[in-house]
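Example 9 (inverse folding). The structure is encoded as follows.
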């Protein structure tokens, strides 16, 4: 009875299939493992979720094994708005006058470590959280400008405007983020308002100079009045002294007579008083 033999081609196919399955399994495993690791920087706060459920509030720094999970990371360092890529942020606002002005605003801010988890629960993505911060910047700037007039903005109080804007932005954010600094780098008003403001400033300078000159003139007039009053008081005291002491009056009369005679007889050798000849002899001219 003849025996059956297995074909050579069938025996060679099985090892090839096994080898192919092993390779495929390794590839699938590698692909799964490649997405199962996440690197966390020391400047980040990362929350780990699986299908939307938080499984780790804060992932440790370094390489983390996260099978079938997804990390959401927030940068915790101070950040600039707008950043270098977005250029500058120009915001329109209405002043207390009211006048619509346009300002160039920049802020430095960061997330609050104590509230970052709640920010994640509310927003779920860093992009949504940043949008809330930027909206607070714009709204806070408008609220602050609404309490300032144009004249006050361009006065010596201008340095306080940035502080007011920072307080208004922080009030909108609460403890969700911290506003460290605000820079109001430029405020532009309509051209006609700018011209009126410049003219008003010029008129104010003219009025200030006039008021200062008026003050100087008033002081001078007061000084002259005080001098006249002092002279009158001195004359009155002098008259009272002569009335109380007739001998003093006689002495002053004698002084006056002596002074008069000295002036009348100045430059002559013989001086006759009371006669018809005042000067009977003059020294010959050499």
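The amino acid assigned to each position is listed next.
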């Amino acid at each position: 009875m003849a025996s059956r033999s297995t074909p050579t081609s069938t025996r060679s196919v099985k090892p090839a299939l096994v080898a192919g399955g092993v390779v495929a399994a390794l590839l699938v495993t590698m692909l799964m493992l490649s997405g199962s690791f996440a690197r966390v920087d020391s400047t980040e706060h990362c929350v780990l979720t699986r299908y939307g459920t938080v499984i780790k509030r804060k992932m440790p720094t370094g390489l983390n094994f996260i099978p079938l999970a997804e990390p959401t990371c927030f940068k915790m360092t101070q950040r600039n708005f707008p950043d270098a890529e977005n250029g500058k942020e120009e915001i329109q606002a209405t002043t207390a006058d009211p006048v619509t002005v346009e300002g160039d605003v920049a802020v430095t801010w960061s997330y609050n470590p104590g509230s970052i988890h709640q920010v994640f629960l509310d927003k779920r993505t860093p992009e949504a959280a940043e949008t809330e911060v930027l909206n607070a910047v714009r709204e806070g700037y408008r609220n602050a400008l609404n309490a300032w007039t144009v004249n006050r903005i361009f006065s010596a109080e201008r340095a306080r405007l940035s502080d007011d804007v920072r307080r208004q932005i922080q009030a909108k954010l609460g403890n969700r983020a911290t506003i460290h600094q605000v820079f109001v780098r430029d405020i532009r008003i309509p051209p006609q308002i700018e011209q009126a403001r410049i003219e008003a400033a010029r008129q104010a300078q003219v009025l200030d100079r006039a008021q200062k000159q008026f003050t100087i003139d008033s002081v001078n007039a007061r000084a002259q009045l005080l001098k006249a009053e002092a002279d009158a008081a001195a004359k009155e005291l002098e008259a009272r002294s002569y009335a109380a002491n007739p001998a003093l009056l006689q002495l002053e009369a004698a002084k006056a007579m002596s002074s008069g005679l000295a002036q009348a007889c100045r430059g002559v050798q013989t001086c006759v008083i009371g006669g018809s000849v005042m000067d009977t002899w003059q020294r010959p001219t050499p």
